[in-house]
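pasting for ref
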Amino acid sequence: MCKHILNAQVSIRSPCCKKWFDCVECHAEQESHALLQKFEMIFACKKCKKCFRKDAKEFEEADEYCPHCDNHFVIDAVVPKPAISVEGADTRVDSRMIKDERVKAKSQQTIFDPDVDADKLG
């Protein structure tokens, strides 16, 4: 599982060490040598789990699909973006974190404001 590209559709076999990686950054993190670049690339489709070869010199639009299952593997990469958000449980199970806009919130009160129920007797 690649942490650099979230929607990787294929794994690529590196020609230098014969290991499978999802991206160039994963190879650089796990191996101490530089990636050897060749024109013939070996892919493994993550959808059908079958391997195939492609020649990068003659890469056409039809070569953007897996020859076994027609999975489109040449797509724009989705890269993780840093974000600050509130993490909580599944809102379908526990909806206490969701603010209901239909209910009007009480106005801000201080300790010096008289309580509404203060003049009622018990």
